Amino acid sequence: MRRTLGVLVVTAVAGTMAGTVPASAGEPPAGAGAPAAAAVEEQRLDRAVPREILRRSGFDSVAGGFAAALRSADSYAEAGRVVDRHGSALWRRAVDRAQGRGPARGDLSRDDDRPLYWARLGMTRELRAWEPRFALSAEARERLLGELERTSRGQDTMDFPGAGRTVGKGFKRIVLTGFDPFTLDRDIRISNPSGATALALDGTWLRTPDGGLARIETAVFPVRWADFAAGTVERTLRQRLPEADLFTTVSQGRVGRFDIERTNGAWRGGFPDNENVSRTETVPVAGPAAQPQWTSTTLPYAAVVAAETGRFPVYDNTSVTEIPAGGTEPVVRPDGPTSGSTARAGGGGNYLSNEIAYRATLLRDRLGLHDTLPGGHVHTPVLEFGAGNTDPATGTVTDPGFVRNRLDIIAQVRAIVAVSAAHR
């Protein structure tokens, strides 16, 4: 069975993980912390496919250069500057490569999102294993890891030209997010078209069908339950949504189709994340006493579905899974939730794509922007390898059909965003 980011409804045993934590100014707490063990994601780095992807993209020297810079740091403050500089450089290098700037440095197609993912993990592994010449507590190391995550994902550089001017004056501002690859233990070759789209569109301008001009700023998020519980979505988007004209979270969904997800649910279904951790629970948010079971898209779904945006069909997906008021068992509702029901899956399921849609739209509503800011979730088609290259045990890391599928998905997301912006 093919797993997709957000559309599978499952249950599993809850687990724990040491996730990234918010950055903190000042000196680290006193005391020395031992180097941290490699995370589950990092343990996959030594397999043949990640090494090939890094080599064929020219990103195989990233972790080594970062490690050398860390070794030269003689204080926590200097280490912080190293992390910030190298994390930001990795994001910019991945964006430049995707958008055709600078040398390709390898024969892997420029649109590939996987070099960023694997290079980042090489850097986080080096940071966990680093033994500095000064005392560094475990908490301080976690803060450095958090800073590396944010800077290498574009989460701290979503800045629009003319920030502070009246929104919508001169051009429209669009926020778009993507995800890392996932289900890597099933097929370690996997690429995520939403992450590739974020790299391809970051900082770009587009003409909307009504003749308007729009600027897109993007970021990529991890496929890890703990990071979401720690507030990575809200921390990244809280300052961006009030100055935006449109936002869309994007993830990989179903085979052969796009979906505009009408409704998002406040439930985690438990499918394991990239750290092989499961969570089955209500989506944990600040202010849970005022937490709704459902949030809804404000994207112009009817206009998007009606438009010619690319070769994949686009659907207005209204289905959810709920426990009806007074009931005990989940029921699929093709036309959306009923009054007083409890969420068990949004249109996008109950994995992290549903959760980012739920968190982003809940943040929109809590900021008082429901009636003025179009926003919601777009599920892309599953990015499939070409014919004859579907077996992960014998297949190659890329092929012409795989590249063509990814490029077509990127182009169609761009067209969907353009149509959405024209109906702002």
What this model shows, in words?
With 424 residues, this protein is α/β, with parallel strands linked by helices. The protein contains twelve helices and 14 strands. β11 and β12 form a beta hairpin. About 6% of the residues have low confidence.
- The arrangement of helices and strands along the chain is HHHHHHEHEEHHEEEEEEHEEEEHEH
Structural class by SSE content: alpha/beta
The top-level CATH class of the largest domain is: Alpha Beta
Distance between the termini: 38 Å
CATH overall fold name of the largest domain: Aminopeptidase
Percent of residues in helices: 25-40%
Under CATH, the homologous superfamily of the largest domain reads Peptidase C15, pyroglutamyl peptidase I-like
